[in-house]
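Troubleshooting log. The previous structure file for this entry was overwritten by mistake, so regenerating from the original sequence record. Sequence copied from the archived sheet and checked twice against the printout by T.R.
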Amino acid sequence: MEAIHSKTLLDIENRVFSLPNLTTDTYDYQHLLHVTSNILTIANSNHLDASIAKTCALLHDHGRIISRVYGRPHAAEGARLAREWLNDYDIDPHIIDIICEAISYHNQKKEIHAPYCEILKNADSLAHKEESFELGRYEQLRAELALTPAFNFHLSTDVSPKKCLIKERQNLLKRLKQLKKAGMTPKQIHQYRIHTRRLRAMLWLNNLEHKSKKAKKLDMLLKNTFQEFEEPRQLRVLYKFLKSANATPLKKAVKKRLEIAVPNVTTLNKTIKKLSIIKCPVLKYSDSSISMVHKFYQTRLSNAWQRQDQIESLHRLRIAGKHLIYLEALGIIKIDQPSDLTWLKSLHKTIGQLNDIHENLLLLTSLAKRHHIKHRHLKNPQLADYVSSEIKELKREVRLLLFTANLRMPYDVFFSPDNKG
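Regenerated output below.
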């Protein structure tokens, strides 16, 4: 049953198209037809109420059409006029609030709001594209993605979790033995980290519903070994960063530290031995596990969007995204739209670059406290300018990618009350 009675909706539509300055040859008349058609398509594909959606479209430009208010203020004026009209009918006050909220926000194309706000903005953006408007970057994204099915992934039936786990453990053992034998090149350490993260992603998915002592034991072993390689990795990232910033004195000091920062050989031998004999847990994946992953990722995304200046929120989103990326690479899950994998990888790569700068600054401070580098070298104007410039650019790119990710989320899940925090 629709939220607004069909007779009421028809009367609203007749009133709109009976306005004296809204004749068939005007832009506003054609624009309302475009937006209405678009919003009904979007609402139907996203399981939102068509009567609410259509009313939003019909009344969204009242501020311009009736009051002749142009630019940004026309949205607030349109919401005011829409409320006056809707109060003439027997419509639930909550429904009126939803419609007026959508109208008041419909020109804020760079922001993310509630479901009906979003579908009105997307329908309006798509109409502007159809009308050959020159669109800004954010509105262009809305127009491009408005009719694309929402982000979704499902459990694959092509891969055996057991065989996949055994194979990845063998790959990890191979990498560890190579590291022990041939030395620890950045490429080898990177490959080791990939196999470790793939294994841990598989265990994480299993543990959502089927916790086991074997899985916990294996995960703890992988986590502890991972930490052994963290200092040399961080120093390599810092060295590369300082090289790009032309911070020569600091770069030389970090290089010296890097030469002695290697994992403990005894620990490495113990890990190889334990990993060789440890029993692999039986992994159990289900559709309900995948549903939990959906909600987990969408909650992380919601938090990151609302707290973009907090590196911790961005980092938590990145970890959640890495699980998806590694599970997809293993063939455990399949992402429905190939383009979604592209923005997913780009988003988490860019957050990683921003996080690296944050960790680099913390590491420099730590090294100075331990007298591995001189405090006066930290007061480098060139380095400060480089950091400021990089952070500014990365934050701009992160915001755009977070915006894209938000547009791709299902409205009925992403905007649920549980995901507001």
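Strands lie at 153-155, 333-335. Archived copy saved in two places this time.
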